[in-house]
């Protein structure tokens, strides 16, 4: 499954210590903080490959793939100088790659049969390419349980400023239950499915506007 989060009682979230922060980094503006992106890619390798033994591509101590491109936005959570979590954020109308094979985003490409490692039946219908819809994948947290909510809340605020309508997640069934505890109007776009890495499903959540 895509999201690796700490299991916790999310009905009561403690105050997040002041030293925790979330940054949104993309090129070229985020180049001065790109060391944080490298640390996030290292964390992905430590969790997904070293700890969970997922058969993912990596080079040296970094895990990355075709969706880690110049038009990707990275969400990076830090505790002081230490990266404690992060995620990959892409607008769904973007294309990357060259030649005859152009990639859009992970969930859609899986449904089109372009990603052999993921089932084609993730969604009941092929998800859209729409500039108002974003995808969040490769979320990983290796820190206090409050970091998960901090990342998701910051992502919602970021997407609100981008006039996004909704965000798609690929995560475990527990993520949908967690969202409901927070009273987020999340809903599933397909069945619970899986592969050797675990069980997961596609979830869509509308971007919440300030009250």
Automatic annotation (TrEMBL):
Gene3D superfamilies in UniProt: 3.40.630.30
BP GO terms, sorted: quorum sensing; signal transduction
UniProt xrefs under Pfam families: Autoind_synth
E.C. no: 2.3.1.184
A molecular function (GO) term: N-acyl homoserine lactone synthase activity
Domain of life: Bacteria
Keyword Transport included in the entry's annotation: no
Keyword entries, A-Z: Autoinducer synthesis, Quorum sensing, S-adenosyl-L-methionine, Transferase
Catalytically driven reaction(s): a fatty acyl-[ACP] + S-adenosyl-L-methionine = an N-acyl-L-homoserine lactone + S-methyl-5'-thioadenosine + holo-[ACP] + H(+)
Entry annotated with the keyword Cytoplasm: no
Cross-referenced InterPro entries: Acyl_CoA_acyltransferase (IPR016181), Autoind_synthase (IPR001690)
Family affiliation: Belongs to the autoinducer synthase family.
Protein name in UniProt: Acyl-homoserine-lactone synthase
Organism per entry: Paracoccus lichenicola
